Amino acid sequence: MALIVQKFGGTSLSDPERILNVAERISAEKMKGNDCVVVVSAMGKTTDQLISLAKDVSNQVNKREMDMLLSTGEQVTIALLSMALSQNGWEAASFTGWQAGIITEPVHGNARILNIHTEKIREQLNKGKIVIVAGFQGVTEDGEITTLGRGGSDTTAVALSTALKASKCDIYTDVTGVYTTDPRHVKEAQKLAAISYDEMLELAHLGAGVLHPRAVEFAKNHNVTLEVRSSIEKERGTIIKEEVTMEQNLVVRGVAFEDEITRVTVFGLPNCLTSLSTIFSTLAKNNIDVDIIIQSMTSKEITDISFSIKNDTLKETLNVLEKNKDLLKYDHIESETGLAKVSIVGSGMVSNPGVAAEMFTVLSNNGIEIRMVSTSEIKISTVVNQQQMLPAVNALHKAFKLSAIPIRS
Amino acid sequence: MALIVQKFGGTSLSDPERILNVAERISAEKMKGNDCVVVVSAMGKTTDQLISLAKDVSNQVNKREMDMLLSTGEQVTIALLSMALSQNGWEAASFTGWQAGIITEPVHGNARILNIHTEKIREQLNKGKIVIVAGFQGVTEDGEITTLGRGGSDTTAVALSTALKASKCDIYTDVTGVYTTDPRHVKEAQKLAAISYDEMLELAHLGAGVLHPRAVEFAKNHNVTLEVRSSIEKERGTIIKEEVTMEQNLVVRGVAFEDEITRVTVFGLPNCLTSLSTIFSTLAKNNIDVDIIIQSMTSKEITDISFSIKNDTLKETLNVLEKNKDLLKYDHIESETGLAKVSIVGSGMVSNPGVAAEMFTVLSNNGIEIRMVSTSEIKISTVVNQQQMLPAVNALHKAFKLSAIPIRS
């Protein structure tokens, strides 16, 4: 008898009918003789509705009270799902984050899990019950309710898999798996049978949106095998694990993309050891999320730094830089919006020189100008004009033969 | 500096605008220099909506999961009200039942409060914060979420008043006080300046609906002075305390009524010492709420027992009686629905013989047939046909001169 952790997202639980469908998926796993621990998100748009209520009573953000408010969303789902399972003849017990012993650091809105006291869950599993746990939430040692940030239910599922030494962690979602690129925009997109943690991390960070990056990191660190699969379709999904056999010796596993990117360039910084750390520490302190960073030296004394941000943080970024001009000692700033990021990801790149060159050639042949480049061992990102994003993705998807992967299902 | 407990019901908190209004009422109390502990119910129809969701996923009742589900309602309100108070410039901290240390017996759906650990609330009050507590809910020693039953937020408020030795407990609601009868149905209904715990108890049990009976009992036992008042209007409400001076030597303080009553008669029970206790213990064990009980002996060996229940518990009542036929040894059962209860309440009855006779005469003169009668020292209840309920109430209100009380406001 194996212990399986199953996570269902909000879209899979948006109404009573879908909750009953999820109960059936759980029943099927239980019928195989497995122990089941189920992690759920808030129903459909509940979280957004609660945030909107909060905005109606206050224009300030009170993070403690926001956690108090939002954590009710998953609590509603666990109770309803537990009832739906009883209806199907199974014994189930639901637990909020604090009841499940999910201890987090004392931070509101974006807490990290420190520890899970699994006694209560074990006790119910030993009685043969299905255990339903509210995702996204935990409690501090002092009894304060915390949340793990958007997508945190994935993290709850992986953390529970680790703490309970589960055989498997199934992430049920509204897509059937991880694709070579976004199938909503590229019709040749293919579902991958498997992908490594690192590749998934690069894809997640780049906006694939299927799995929360922190959850993938957690899974990698604790070697938890994940499967991303559909809560509606019965087909196999995509396995995420450490070592993935290359399919047809593919060098590239996927093409990711993200629009609404802005480039900011800071000119004339003093070329000293602390320049880079000062500028990005200042931005981080103001919660500005910077993605690609490029430095180019223009002389021995001064340097220019470019970085990319999301369009909607431009105003604040410029404010912060302006306020700290005396500290940072730069000359002037330029910014350019209307950009997009297109990246190729694959562990195979490490041992294949020339992948970057091939990518640049494909883009150039398609008349696409590259504005910024950033590379890691398993990823190459380019920033291009937003209008050229989808043509770039399609060209790369085809050039790296991603449309032709034989898929098992 | 006094400590005031304020309780606001769901109607007073049904939307963001009303929540902001409640925040202003609390601000006003705080401005006087008082410490405030606020107890709230779920917003508007939230509880009903949650119950309806539960019915959509299951036709069984799982009381543990129902408590898990319903307790989210108050948790949403405490967070929003706390945010609204921050918006008004006050520091506030919200607490769920378990965070507020409200320990209940291990019963779901209708738990009694055993104890309140007030340390956390005291700590926040000492910091000058307004404390907002989720009404209606508590936690067992084992960490299971419980609820106190409908209207339980009143109980939370009174229990907190006792535990914190509050100077006063204000129950804010959608009516301006306690009336001689329901003003929605009887236009001559008058607001009472004051009423005793016992009178209020009789009125509450009889469906006046302003205050939960358990809360009044709790207040009586711990001598907590309550004031029932409007959350919108600024006028004085009705004080509820031990001794109330009679206004104009009125014998009757109010006329209460309740529809959807069913009479059940159990025929041919063995006339032995244990018959009554066995039958009502069996019903109580199955959580069936019995109101009026009447026994009439038909012979030395056997007896008949009639009792009244709410219409919607008839099916379960008959099931329970049927299942336990061997234990109870009765002959057969009859039931009659479509009834209503009409009662007069007043401490003055104790020293005024003939009040019952007067009541029966008034009803008889108005052509109203009495189906059951039950009396206590301060109350006479009659069961009549449901169609005759309001005519009976109007006739009694007039006959006992309740329309003419001079009211201070």
UniProtKB/TrEMBL annotation, chains A, B:
Organism placement in taxonomy: Bacteria, Bacillati, Bacillota, Bacilli, Bacillales
Pathway listed: Amino-acid biosynthesis; L-methionine biosynthesis via de novo pathway; L-homoserine from L-aspartate: step 1/3; Amino-acid biosynthesis; L-threonine biosynthesis; L-threonine from L-aspartate: step 1/5; Amino-acid biosynthesis; L-lysine biosynthesis via DAP pathway; (S)-tetrahydrodipicolinate from L-aspartate: step 1/4
Binding residues for substrate: T47, E74
Protein's recorded name: Aspartokinase
Keywords, comma-separated and alphabetical: Amino-acid biosynthesis, ATP-binding, Diaminopimelate biosynthesis, Kinase, Lysine biosynthesis, Nucleotide-binding, Repeat, Transferase
Keyword Cell membrane in record: no
UniProt superkingdom: Bacteria
Catalytic activity: L-aspartate + ATP = 4-phospho-L-aspartate + ADP
Quaternary structure note: Tetramer consisting of 2 isoforms Alpha (catalytic and regulation) and of a homodimer of 2 isoforms Beta (regulation).
The keyword S-adenosyl-L-methionine is annotated on this UniProt entry: no
One GO MF term: ATP binding
Function comment: Catalyzes the phosphorylation of the beta-carboxyl group of aspartic acid with ATP to yield 4-phospho-L-aspartate, which is involved in the branched biosynthetic pathway leading to the biosynthesis of amino acids threonine, isoleucine and methionine.
Family: Belongs to the aspartokinase family.
Binding-site positions, ATP: K7, F8, G9, G10, T173, D174, Y179, R184
Domain ACT: 264-347
A Gene Ontology BP annotation from the UniProt entry: homoserine biosynthetic process
Record's GO cellular component terms: cytosol
Enzyme Commission code(s) on record: 2.7.2.4
